[in-house]
């Protein structure tokens, strides 16, 4: 319930006055509905269905006295006209309330959706390392839908409760004793219904669990479709999918079973109640017929509401796990928030690196509970406007070091200094990242045209600038040969391009940003020697005007580096010029070099 109230508070913050207006409208509608029912009695009397003594009916008798004092004769047309007016007014109000209710709900869902998306985007990179991407999809699509539905159920429930309380008030005025009997029965029903609510809650937990696995599964499968096809894994995956679908199906059926059973029991209970009620009223309490009719009328409208509240409650319980999951995600990203983006517009402007980037005694663990350090006591200096290469075996910590230099992860111990200033504030982080052009090991391209992919980093870039960047990355020729040139759409993650073509487009994008620092993590690993040589030459031309940090397994690509840093098991074991390290007889670098020249030759 605490999770529900966390979101209701948000709704209150978002809607404020409109929420109360909505409740007040409900109050008025309920009153009009009650009055409408009251008017049925005089109508019946006027039509001649009953010979009634109106003095016996509290509210109606007062109404009659007022009408008498105005010397108006209550004719059938007049009563019918009033009835139509009241019920019509109620219908009109009900429509406005529906629109208002939907406005409140939709604006709340929009703000919740934006808040969650923004919160996720502003969280630290480390947060994303720990979580599964499919969990975000699941919360943003599935759980958000359930939270929205649950919130609407909550509003309906509040409306239902207001309505019910007013109607009970009216009924109480007419016949306190009989009403008390009905309320007591309703109370018993509510106690009995707790069992169903609990059961519905358990099914809701299962729903969350299943849909999370479902999302994660299909996400994995479609991401790994190439492996599935090439390893003939279709059958086993279809089998998994069948099993999962069965579980989803039986979960829903189970929920319907619980809901329908509770509905069935409520119905039987209400029929028995009304029958017993009429018997008691007539045989034991000798209630006047006109009063009895009114009370039966009120309760025949009230009781379904009462059942509705119970059923809302059950459905709300089914959706509570979604509230819980969403709140948990909010708490997690709030704890790991990195950016607020609330700085002044000039905050975090890209800069020109003057001196260099330094790591002082930097230690880092992906999991602080585990003893293994991904980086241990790193002391390196990356001089501005020079080319630094980071080499080492697979898993040595090269990408981790780069993430550290880009401020994507922070040191557990030690410091990262940019031009002598410790990297700490959001403004510095934004400035640093704004000054970096980064090409990742597994480059990402959006399912859009090459032009749009490039213009992501500079929306105002002219075509000539795009072609210059493409020329730099040796991709101008192949882009020119594509049927739609720059406007060619390249598919999910750039699937319609080859690995090397993808790398070259991402490199062009990084260059288009005109960065002060260019970071290349295995950025040319998929290229043929000819294209690699062309990029090598382009990078050489940049030396002196741009700080270049390169990770490369192919050591031939870093021959022109000013500095080489060799990492092994998270530690820097060698550092110096390419030539110098290649001559250190017992050094790791020479060893790596000899493996490659041995392999090549
Ligand atoms: N997200 C992560 N969570 C936990 N451990 C990680 C994570 N990423 C990397 N590691 C571990 O940290 C160590 C360094 O990894 P890193 O990716 O920096 O190596 P690398 O030198 O870049 O390797 P490669 O050349 O294969 O890309 C490895 O032991 C790896 O298993």
UniProtKB/TrEMBL annotation:
PROSITE patterns per UniProt: ABC_TM1F, ABC_TRANSPORTER_1, ABC_TRANSPORTER_2, PROKAR_LIPOPROTEIN
Species: Paenibacillus arenilitoris
A Gene Ontology cellular-component term: plasma membrane
InterPro entries, per the entry: AAA+_ATPase, ABC1_TM_dom, ABC1_TM_sf, ABC_transporter-like_ATP-bd, ABC_transporter-like_CS, P-loop_NTPase, Type_1_exporter
Superkingdom, natural source: Bacteria
Gene Ontology molecular-function annotations: ABC-type transporter activity; ATP binding; ATP hydrolysis activity; ATPase-coupled lipid transmembrane transporter activity; cysteine-type peptidase activity
Descriptive protein name: ABC transporter ATP-binding protein
Sequence ranges assigned to domain ABC transporter in this UniProt record: 357-594
UniProt-listed PANTHER family: ATP-BINDING CASSETTE SUB-FAMILY B (PTHR24221), ATP-BINDING CASSETTE SUB-FAMILY B MEMBER 6 (PTHR24221:SF654)
Transmembrane segments: 21-50, 70-93, 147-166, 172-193, 264-282
Keywords: ATP-binding, Cell membrane, Hydrolase, Membrane, Nucleotide-binding, Protease, Thiol protease, Transmembrane, Transmembrane helix, Transport
Compartment(s) of residence: Cell membrane
Domain ABC transmembrane type-1: 23-318
Membrane topology of the entry: Multi-pass membrane protein
């Amino acid at each position: 319930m605490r999770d529900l109230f966390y979101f209701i508070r948000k709704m209150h913050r978002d809607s404020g006055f409109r929420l109360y207006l909505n409740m007040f409208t409900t109050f008025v509608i309920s009153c009009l509905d009650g009055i409408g029912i009251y008017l049925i009695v005089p109508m019946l009397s006027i039509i001649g269905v009953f010979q009634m003594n109106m003095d016996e009916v509290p509210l109606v008798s007062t109404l009659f006295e007022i009408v008498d004092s105005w010397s108006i004769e209550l004719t059938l047309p007049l009563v019918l006209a009033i009835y139509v007016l009241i019920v019509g007014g109620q219908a009109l109000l009900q429509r406005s309330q529906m629109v208002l209710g939907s406005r409140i709900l939709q604006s709340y869902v929009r703000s919740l959706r934006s808040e969650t998306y923004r919160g996720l985007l502003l969280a630290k990179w480390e947060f994303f390392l720990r979580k599964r991407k499919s969990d975000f999809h699941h919360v943003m699509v599935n759980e958000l839908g359930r939270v929205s539905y649950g919130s609407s159920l909550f509003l309906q429930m509040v409306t239902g409760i207001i309505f019910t309380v007013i109607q009970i008030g009216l009924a109480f005025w007419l016949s306190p004793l009989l009403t008390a009997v009905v309320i007591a029965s309703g109370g018993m029903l509510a106690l009995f219904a707790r069992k169903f609510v609990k059961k519905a809650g358990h099914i809701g937990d299962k729903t969350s669990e299943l849909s999370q696995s479902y999302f994660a599964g299909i996400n994995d499968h479609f991401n790994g479709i190439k492996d599935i096809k090439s390893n003939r894994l279709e059958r086993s995956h279809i089998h998994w999918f069948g099993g999962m679908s069965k579980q989803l199906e039986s979960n829903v059926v189970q929920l319907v079973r619980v809901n329908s059973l509770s509905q069935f029991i409520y119905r039987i209970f209400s029929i028995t109640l009304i029958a017993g009620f009429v018997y008691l009223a007539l045989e034991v309490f000798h209630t006047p017929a006109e009063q009895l009719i009114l009370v039966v009328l009120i309760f025949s409208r009230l009781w379904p509401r009462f059942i509705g509240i119970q059923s809302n409650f059950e459905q709300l319980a089914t959706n509570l796990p979604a509230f819980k999951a969403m709140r948990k995600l909010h708490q997690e990203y709030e704890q790991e928030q990195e950016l607020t983006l609330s700085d002044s517009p000039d905050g975090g402007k890209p800069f020109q690196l003057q001196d260099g980037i330094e790591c002082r005694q930097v230690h880092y663990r992906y999991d602080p509970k585990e003893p293994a350090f991904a980086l241990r006591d790193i002391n390196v200096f990356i001089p501005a406007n020079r080319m630094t290469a980071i080499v080492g075996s697979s898993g040595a910590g090269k990408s981790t070091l780069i993430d550290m230099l880009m401020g994507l992860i922070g040191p557990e111990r030690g410091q990262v200094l940019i031009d002598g200033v410790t990297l700490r504030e959001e403004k510095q982080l934004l400035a640093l990242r704004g000054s970096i052009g980064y090409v990742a090991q597994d480059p990402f391209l959006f399912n859009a045209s090459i032009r749009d992919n490039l213009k992501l980093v500079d929306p105002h870039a002219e075509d000539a600038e795009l072609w210059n960047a493409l020329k730099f990355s040796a991709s101008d020729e192949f882009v020119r040969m594509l049927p739609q040139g720059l406007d060619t759409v390249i598919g999910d993650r750039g699937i319609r391009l080859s690995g090397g073509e993808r790398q070259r487009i991402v490199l062009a994008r990084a260059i288009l940003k005109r960065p002060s620092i260019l970071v290349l993590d295995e950025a040319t690993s998929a290229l043929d020697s000819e294209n690699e040589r062309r990029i090598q030459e382009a990078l050489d031309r940049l030396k002196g005007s741009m700080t270049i940090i390169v990770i490369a397994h192919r050591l031939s690509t870093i021959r022109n580096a000013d500095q080489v840093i060799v990492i092994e098991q998270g530690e820097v074991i060698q550092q110096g010029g390419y030539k110098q390290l290649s001559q250190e007889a017992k050094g790791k670098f020479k060893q790596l070099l000899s493996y490659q020249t041995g392999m090549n030759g």
